[in-house]
């Protein structure tokens, strides 16, 4: 089979093949199949997303973070790794080597961004407040900083 082109048609074929694997996957399939009511519509949306990401077409008009947050109770960070494994397999099989690497790199960044949006909590971290100068007006160059 000839490698798919990095164009709208090639990305649509890639998305279709990839999500067929996701739907059949033991870990990812149940989550995706429960979350998606209309697969043809969703696949079109995902093809538009990848077209916007890789071809800067501007076709995608959705909001991925809120869409994924609706399913946060079923998504674990480890599932992103499985998603990326399937993505790597599919892109390597269907795309030219250069396109596969570019798609994998972009997917890894997207997965990282989604994980940060979904699982990173600022209140879980110890964030130091701004340093304040010592109120001692007699020392023009105070050496101590109050927390």
UniProtKB/TrEMBL annotation:
Origin species: Edaphosphingomonas haloaromaticamans
Gene: ctb
CDD domains from the UniProt entry: TrHb3_P
Stated name of the protein: Group 3 truncated hemoglobin ctb
Xref: InterPro entries: Globin-like_sf (IPR009050), Globin/Proto (IPR012292)
Single GO MF annotation: heme binding
